[in-house]
Structure formats: C-alpha cells, structure tokens
Specification:
Helix content is 30%, strand content 38%. The chain contains two helices and seven strands. It is elongated and about 45 Å long. This is Lipoprotein.
Amino acid sequence: MTDTAAELTDRADELRAVADRISAVFGASPTVTMNERLDCDPAEPGRTFRWEYNVRVPATLESAQRLADSVIPALTEDGWTVTNRDSPAEVAAQFSRDGSYLGVHIARSGAGDVVVGGATPCIDVVER
C-alpha cells in the first residue's frame, strides 16, 4: 500500500468513527448501508478514490432535538463546520472538515430513519 492509499484508509477510519459516534446519539444500533471505496474520476479510473460511509438509525420524535443539542455542538467543538440544510420535509445538517463531509438527515415527521453519511475527499491512490 502506498502512502496515499494509507491516507485514504486513515481518512476512512476517521469518517466511520465520527459517523458511528453521531449515530450513537440517536440510540439504537446503526445499520450500515454503504462502506466502500469509490472511484472519483471516470476519465482516469483506478487513480483517484474517496471513501463513502452511510448508516441508518430508527428515528424518534426526539431525533431533531438530539441533533441540535448534542451532535452540532460536539462536532463544532471538534473543528467541523456546520451548514444548515433544513427543508420543509426534513431537518438536516452538513458538516465539513479537511475536505471530508458528513450529513445528518431526519424526517420532520419523526418517522423512518436518521441517515448519517458522508465521504472523504478524493485522494490520488497509485497502487503498485
């Protein structure tokens, strides 16, 4: 594995850890819906990759309040920038730091799942 491949692995580990920490705030055990390396450049496949990781946790009527009271302050304190992505249908926040991003999406109805997911930045990975 090259240094850049190791960087992608390290960034993926960090992304998973933060997403899992966020999902734990909402209670139940998360269901992983994506955990994979994806090619960033279809013009030059096999060179530049990002890692995507997504989980779902059953939503409750308290989920939006937990996002506001716990998740946003904790990630802001850890250096993540938060952007409000609320819409009429959902409460949503996007977090970014060092090229990685994470989103949290919660239906305003309280039904369905809390979706937590994101990706690392694209990193050149030349494998030998």
